[in-house]
Structure formats: C-alpha cells, structure tokens
Amino acid sequence: MRWTRSLITTLRDDPQEAEIASHKLMLRAGMLRKVGGGLYSFTPLGLRALRKVEKIVREEMDAAGALEILLPALQPIELWETSGRASQMGASMFRLKDRADRTMVLGPTHEEVVTDYMLHEINSYRQLPVIVYQIQTKFRDEIRPRFGLMRAKEFIMKDAYSFDTSLDAADASYKAMYDAYVRIFRRCGLEAHPVEADTGTIGGNHSHEFMVLAPSGEDGILHCAKCGYSANQERAERRTAGSRYTTKAGSPEEVATPGAHSVDEAAASMGVPSTQIVKSLVYLADGKPVLAIVEGNTEVNECKLRRFLGCSILVPADIETAEKAVGAPFGSIGPVGVKIPVYADIGLKGARDVCVGANKDGFHLRHVSIEDDIKAEWADIATVVEGDSCPHCGEPLSIERGIEVGHVFKLGTKYTEKFKATYLDDKGVPQTLVMGCYGIGVTRTVQAVVEQSHDDDGIIWPASVAPYHVDLLLLDPNSPEVVKAAEELESALEAQGIDVLLDDRAERPGVKFKDADLIGFPFRVVAGAKALAKGCFEVRARGDKESALMPVGDTAAWISARIKEKLAGA
Ligand code: ATP
Ligand code: MG
Which of 199-208, 214-223, 515-524 has the highest mean pLDDT? Predict the structure, then answer.
C-alpha cells in the first residue's frame, strides 16, 4: 500500500477531548475519527488493527469448537420482557418504535435472542454441548461515554453462549472459553489477568473478568501476592475479625452532637475514633427502602449489597425518600428502632460499644451494641481496600487499576428457565438447558493494546495487531533506483505475507520518521540513496534506539523471520 493512496492523516498535537494516552494516540495516529459522544469511525488504518484482533478472536473461538452465528442487533422488546430485563436495563438500553408502533431495542447484549434461538433449535441431549458466538455491534446508552473506544455508545463485542445438559457439564464449556480467552489476549500481545468478578445484571454465580492493568482503568483489582487471590473491588470478599469495640460500656445513650453529620464530625464531637462511628445509609432496592450500616472508616459497596439482596436495581435514596423511610432528619439517620430492614456489614460483628445516628437532629447514640440494640442481618457489604486482609490467606491485599477486556459467566438456568428452553434427556424427559455467556470487547481490546504498549513517541504495536508490519520509507521518492529497490523489497515481503506500507510522500524525512514512530509499525525500513550506494537498507525495530544497515538481499528474509517469530511467540 502506498501512503499517498492510504487516506492516512496524522495529527501533530493531542486532541483536546482525549484524556488517556491510548485515546490520544489512536486519534493522533489517524486510526479513529470522532463522530459524536461515544461514537467513532474507524479509518482504513484503524480498521486493519480491528480486523486483526477480530481474526485472532475468530481463530481461537473456532479452535475451541464454537460455531459462528450472526444475530440481529435490532430486537423485539418482547424478548426482554420474557427475561425480565426490559425494566432492569433502564435507560442504558436504546429503545425505538417501528412504523407499526412496536417497541424495538438496539441490542446491548444477546442473551435473550440467543436463548430464543436455541429454544427452537435444540431438541435432544445429542445436540449438546454447543457453543455459538458472533462478532457484532452492541449499543449501550452509557451514562458517561469516554476514553474513546473504552466506553462507547456503539462498540463491537465478541459474544459467545454455551448450552449444556447440566451445571457440571457447563464447567467444561466455561473452561474451554476461559482458556481461549487466555490465548486470545496473549496473541494480541496483551497482559490480561483473570480476576473474580461481579455478575452484574446478567446474574449467575461463576464469573471471571480479564483485566488489562493500566492506571487509567475504571476498575479496582485487589490482589494477594502470597496466594494469588485476585478480585474486582465490586465483589472482593472481606476477611474480618469483626469489630474492635466488643466490650459493653452501658446502654444506648443520647449525646448532643450539634452540627455533626459526617463521620469525622461525629467522631470529633464525641471524642471517639472514626472507626467507632457506624455509618448508616438508606438505599432503594427495587424501590423498597433498606438501611445499610458499616464501620465509619469503610464504604458501602453497592455491587455487593445489590448481590446480597438479590435485587435488580439498587440506588442511594434521595434525602426526601430517606427521611420519609426512616422518619428522621437525613443527617441523623441511624439503625436503632427503624422499621425498614437493616443490613450490617460483617466488620461490625461483635460490636457492643459503637456510636450511631440517633434519628433526631443534633444527636447521636453511644454505647450501642449491634447485636442487642439493633435488628439487623449480617452481610458482607463493605468495600475491600488496599491493605485489607486477603479473604483466603490473610496477607495484606494490594490494589491496581484495570481495564475489563473480557468477561466469562456461568449463567446456569437464569435465562433458559424464563424462556422454557429445554432439551430431552436420554430418557426422553424435558430438562432445562444450562447456559454460559462470554464477552470480549473487541474495539476496547484494540485500544487496550495501545494503552499497554506505547512510549512518548507513539504506539508500539505488537506484530499480531499492527495495521502494517513494516513502514518502508522512501527517502528519495524521485530516484528511480531507490524506488526500484523499495518496490522489490515490498514485493518480497508481501510474498511472505508481511503487510507493508510504502511511505512515498514528498515529505521531509523528519516528518516520515515521526509518523512511523507515532503509528508504531513494528519495523521501519529506510530506502535512501546513501545506504543503497553501500547495498543496504536501514532497518529499525520500533522501540530500538539505533537502526542497522542490512544488505538489500537479506532484508526481506530477515524481517519476515522476525515477524513470524513474534507472531508464533505471542
Ligand atoms: P463495564 O463494566 O466496563 O461497563 P460490562 O461488565 O457492562 O462492562 P459486559 O456486559 O461484560 O460489560 O460486556 C462484555 C465486554 O464488552 C466487556 O468486558 C467490555 O470489554 C466490553 N464493553 C462493555 N461495555 C462497553 C462499552 N461501553 N464500550 C466498549 N466496550 C464495552
Ligand atoms: Mg462485565
């Protein structure tokens, strides 16, 4: 491919709207163009990288025995009503009407459509197990689309679905997908760590996320260096010895704490450490008010609370709703004597001398015993933070930020029960299909590669996803000898299956060198009159400081061998 025919335009400066390195670089390298909030066009250059990721995904899915299908992005709302997710998805699902006034949905995911498909397709246990997958556009009306392809309103996902005869049998499908994911991300040149994950609105009980570690990641990942426990902060379990205030000091007693509403204010006003204050928060669980209480120095984790309650939607109650539910002014809310259900974090176990809001403006209660004075149910609902003990071995946990590139779920019968998707077992008895679902954010993965692999000069593409493997730079586009040597090298490389971009622009060498580094081709070859007079090209791998002179006759074989090594080793 000739640069002058390629529609590649690079930008010198960082675009205003881009906050993270990969987003800036994708725009500057001319791989993406913004269309609107969370909406991007792939340029011919960007599409090449995307197609390479898709190819790796397809090859590994096929190798794992999954069958490629294509389901419609436009879906009837009725399928979502059958699963019960029509309301649960809320505003994040795009809805529209067709000309006959029927409500349709732009698919944010495809569990419903695929279950409906299998319900009609599968009759007998003999057809099982089966895994199907597709690579397709998804639509989500994200609250905060940002970071380019990382959180877009329209993005490409690979979604796979497995159907098995039993939960045990489904383990094999789960493992096949998990292993395929490990290979996919490795081949993309990504270091992606599987971590225990929350199951979100999808539900089910087994789930791992594949996380690319990066400071810009939106997820917190807790990790134990000793035993290897890794979990998303949305679900990480707490290991706790319980409260440190276990000695009863008396009965609950009102203390005037004028103006003290926050934990710190209350602690200061009462002259106790903040750990002795109990934080009380009102939530609406599927519209019903509940009170969550945690130690003053911890936070309620909404994902964990939602999962514990088994509700679909959990939101903090607004001031008015909270005051009405508890019957007390907002800043004074506490758990003693309330009529709504109370959930106490396990970190409060054994607490017999703590301070809580008195449900009366300007007052707290001290000497409160959680077990004696409050009707509460124990729950693991506080957020685990750096330094907390590993739930498995007790070592202090560390925390890192991560980008979720893939997610595997063992769903069980959550959808197949609702859709009455059954098969006949070997005795002819109808049984419910057991399901798993497995997603990879394909467009997000492309950008995650850039986030993990770049330097000050630009992108450093792994050979497996580089839009072109070699940037062949014509220093003297007007010299027939130079052009001839470069074209011969181009043909020789292309014959080896190597993708070459020939920079034939009438630009200064400095501009071409900068662009080569910015786009980040794995190899740069310079064809110039000076080196050619010595029978050589100048060859440099991206990331190396110096380029080397290489005899013209050896260059094609040497580069294609290096690239094939990289592709095989990835
Ligand atoms: P997140 O927690 O990042 O919102 P999710 O858990 O809702 O993602 P899944 O439903 O598990 O996402 O979707 C499978 C994969 O699709 C994710 O692992 C992620 O890589 C990708 N993905 C999800 N939402 C987006 C988005 N808005 N833009 C780009 N990729 C996305
Ligand atoms: Mg997910």
Answer: 515-524
Q: Which SS3 state, helix, strand or coil, does residue 328 take?
A: coil
Asked if 170 contacts 141 with a C-beta cutoff of 8 angstroms, the reply is no
Q: What's the CA gap between 556 and 550, in Å, rounded?
A: 10
276: DSSP letter = G
Average pLDDT in the 145-158 region? Answer: 98
Is position 320 within any domain? yes
Residue ranges making up the domain that contains 151 = 18-191+410-451
pLDDT of residue 569: 78
Atom of ligand 1 nearest to the CA of 109: 10
Say whether both 263 and 342 belong to one domain.
yes
CATH number for the domain including 297? 3.90.960.10
State the ligand closest to the CA atom of 234.
1
SS3 of 309, please? helix
What are the helix (H) ranges across 319-472?
Answer: 319-326, 370-373, 414-418, 442-452
Whole-number Å distance, alpha carbon 404 to ligand 1 midpoint, is 7
Question: What are the DSSP calls for 81-122, one per residue?
Answer: HHHTHHHHTGGGSEEEE-TT--EEEE-S--HHHHHHHHHHH-
Give which of 248, 245, 277 is closest to 358, Cα–Cα. Answer: 277
Could you tell me the distance, in angstroms and rounded to a whole number, from the CA of residue 441 to the centre of ligand 1? 6
Q: What is the pTM of this model?
A: 0.90
Residues 427 and 482 in one domain: no
Atom of ligand 1 nearest to the CA of 445: 20
Determine the distance from the C-alpha atom of residue 490 to the mean position of all C-alpha atoms in its chain, rounded to a whole number: 39
pLDDT of residue 88: 86
If one counts every other C-beta atom within 10 angstroms of the C-beta of residue 3, the result is 19
Report the pLDDT value the prediction gives residue 406, as an integer from 0 to 100: 98
425 plus 362 within the same structural domain: no
535 in a structural domain: yes
DSSP designation for 43: P
Instruction: State how beta strands 230-232 and 219-223 pair.
Output: antiparallel
Centroid of ligand 2 to alpha carbon of 174 (angstroms): 15
Q: Whose CA is nearest to atom 31 of ligand 1?
A: 441
175 CA to middle of ligand 2, Å?
A: 17
233, 222 contact by CB (below 8 A): yes
Q: Which helix (H) or strand (E) holds 558?
A: helix 552-569
**Rg (Cα) of the chain, in Å, rounded?**
29
Looking at ligand 1, which residue's alpha carbon is closest to its atom 4? 151
For the chain, what's the residue count? 570
| pLDDT tens by residue, 531-541 | 999 999 999 99
In this prediction, residue 200 has a pLDDT band, given cuts at 50, 70 and 90, of: low
Query: Does residue 405 have its Cβ closer than 6 Å to ligand 1?
Result: yes
Where on the phi/psi map is residue 250: left (φ > 0), alpha (ψ -120 to 50), or beta? left
Q: Is residue 405 part of a domain?
A: no
